[in-house]
Amino acid sequence: MTQFGISPDVAYMAGPEALPRANGQLVFDAPWQGRALAMAMALSRQPGVGWERFRSLLIAAIAAQPAAPYWESWVTALENLTAEIAAPLA
Amino acid sequence: MTADSHHHPAEPAPIERRVTALEEVLTARGMVSAEFIDAVVHAYENDIGPMNGAVVVARAWCDPGYRQRLVANGTAAIGELGFGGPEGEHLVAVENTTSVHNVVVCTLCSCYPWPVLGLPPAWYKSPAYRARVVREPRMVLVEFGVNLPDDVEIRVWDSSAEARYLVIPRRPAGTDDLSEADLARLVTRDGMIGTALL
Question: Disulfide: which of A18, A23, A63, B98 matches B114 by Cβ 3.0-4.6 Å?
Fold first, then answer.
């Protein structure tokens, strides 16, 4: 596996937070979705963060707004994680 | 920082702008780079689909009974693991051995076992691959970096709507101690098309 390759933690998420797929294939409807995925992975690799921390924020975002599109909940979770570990530059 | 700083814009910007804003912040902090984002997107678009197939192959390596069922009836055995669907009908698993190497093509169009391998790579659909792998499979495999001994028979399987093939690659040496999940990570898409060895 390359450093960018599949992480089982990410690929095998089950439940409402599972990555949306078509015929097993992950499909991005728009480029920003892929970028949001990559940013979550990058943040989870920061020291002391880990995928589970993003995943729990994603679950919370989905639960808070069950009707929101999946990738919008993803971005909300990403914003929350960013606020926790990399406060926006003033 | 404190919980109080978890503020968000009252009026959410359009989603692309929110993502761009995040990207700017995280890039400024050195936490992401454009190269990393591009590489992740590319890897996921190309690698996630084949993971279903990889799970199937790893199970076959670990469970001789499953392997027998898979070779006998690919669709049913793959269905046992929850994979299938409209284009997962008529799945046929063909097994590489020390004396036989299998490679898959669709000479007519681009039939492909989507539910287990995801989207086909561009070369799979190219006229050159479709024509040449039938005519000169050994040479095509060499071009993919697959150098087989002369005494290994190459079998070329032509996919159709009636039969979509999945190659069961040979289990790599030195993997006796790996778990089934770890084994699945070794299985590549090209390995399951037959254009790569593991």
Answer: A23
